[in-house]
Design goal:
This protein has 335 residues and is of the alpha/beta class. The chain has 11 helices and 14 strands. Helices cover 41% and strands 20% of the residues. It has a 6-stranded parallel β-sheet, with helices on both faces. A 3-stranded antiparallel β-sheet has the order 7-10-11. The protein has a 3-stranded antiparallel β-sheet with strand order 12-13-14. The structure holds 1,4-dihydronicotinamide adenine dinucleotide (NAI). The site of 1,4-dihydronicotinamide adenine dinucleotide has 27 residues, from helix 1.
Length: 335
């Protein structure tokens, strides 16, 4: 059987951590044949709660779970890590300015990037979930000069899954009949969920999504609803998305490791300059996973003729990523 993989989860005592850990331990992150060693990183005040979750992991008697380590020391948590899920982050407090938020998170993600650089396995794969996810991933990557930038990613898979689900519900199709949606840019309200190359299989044949839905629905309902779904969940559930965020994190890492067999999805990965996104930004693109690496799929420029304003939407979310990068750079957070 396969050798065990060390999976590090930060913010393990939080909501997403709670929804995530049993799924990792049951084999859903890496596959049903891969034993897992879980390393849980928390701040000192939350270590005890994480130990409680570790007790529940033990009580679940997962055959694939080799060990669980709970710690507040990053060097220990990332030691030998093959996968790191960076979920713990500093939420925006009352009256906190954007610069304060970026700085507080820089103080978390800089040292964690450094610890990954110094202690993780050579083939480490990092997924940043904690917000602002794209820029936190950029900060961590900047502090890990020995780790290829391609190995630092941020999560837009939840946005992608939300978009797939909304289109399926609106067209009466099944989720499995939806293909080719792209989330562009930042995991924020400026993100662009793009249907201009999406298809829906209807009665066995593939149809362009934009032939099946009205423009007004796309502009006034679909795009804002996907972008603001997090707030909608908070309003209805009384707490922020946790199960769906954990599920998306599982999807992202599973696909990264095991490949997508040509099926497209969305992930925030380092830009090589594709689609006019400045090189080095961590931006969401249309991607496939092949041979254990994400690849940006070319030739899928948002189609202005199908959705006027599409190009502008892409430009807006990329401009926001640039301004976040410039802000953390001027705070000295990029090393
Ligand atoms: P939470 O507040 O329930 O849990 C966060 C946990 O992180 C807490 O237990 C806290 O003690 C821990 N933490 C804080 N600083 C840490 C550090 N330096 N090292 C280790 N642990 C640390 O939050 P929840 O609901 O689990 O969400 C976590 C993050 O995920 C938030 O930033 C949230 O905005 C983000 N998020 C991102 C999504 C995405 O699609 N990219 C979707 C949903 C949430």
């Amino acid at each position: 059987s396969a050798s065990p993989v060390t999976v590090t989860v930060t913010g393990a005592a939080g909501n997403i951590g709670y929804a995530l850990l049993c799924r990792i331990a049951s084999g859903q992150l890496l596959g049903p044949d891969v034993p897992v060693r879980l390393n849980l990183l928390e701040i000192p005040d939350a270590v005890r709660a994480a130990e409680g979750t570790a007790m529940e992991l033990a009580d679940s008697a997962f055959p694939l779970l080799d060990s669980v380590t709970v710690t507040d020391r990053a060097e220990r948590a990332f030691d030998g890590a093959g996968v790191a899920l960076l979920v713990g982050a500093r939420p925006r407090g009352k009256g906190m300015e954007r610069a304060d938020l970026l700085e507080a998170n820089g103080r978390i993600f800089g040292p964690q990037g450094r610890a990954i650089n110094d202690h993780a396995a050579d083939d480490i794969r990092v997924l940043v979930v904690g917000n602002p996810a794209n820029t936190n991933a950029l900060i961590a990557s900047a502090h890990a000069p020995d780790v290829p930038a391609e190995r630092f990613t941020a999560m837009t898979r939840l946005d992608h899954n939300r978009a797939v689900s909304q289109l399926a519900a609106h067209t009466g199709a099944a989720v499995r009949d939806i293909e080719g949606i792209t989330i562009w840019g930042n995991h924020s309200a400026t993100q662009f969920p793009d249907l201009t190359h999406a298809t829906v299989t209807v009665d066995g044949s593939s149809r362009p999504a934009l032939e099946l839905v009205e423009r007004a629905w796309v502009d006034e309902e679909f795009i804002p609803r996907v972008a603001k779904r997090g707030a909608e969940i908070i309003e209805v559930r009384g707490a922020s998305s946790a199960a769906s965020a954990a599920s998306a994190a599982i999807d992202h890492v599973y696909d990264w490791v095991n490949g997508t067999q040509g099926r497209r999805t969305s992930a925030a990965i380092v830009s090589d300059g594709s689609y006019g996104v400045p090189e080095g930004l961590i931006s969401s693109f249309p991607v496939v996973s092949e041979g254990g690496a994400w690849q940006i799929v070319p030739g899928l420029e948002p189609d202005e003729s199908l959705l006027p304003g599409a190009g502008e939407r892409l430009a807006t979310t990329v401009a926001e990523l640039e301004s976040e990068r410039d802000a953390v750079r001027s705070l000295g957070l990029l090393g």
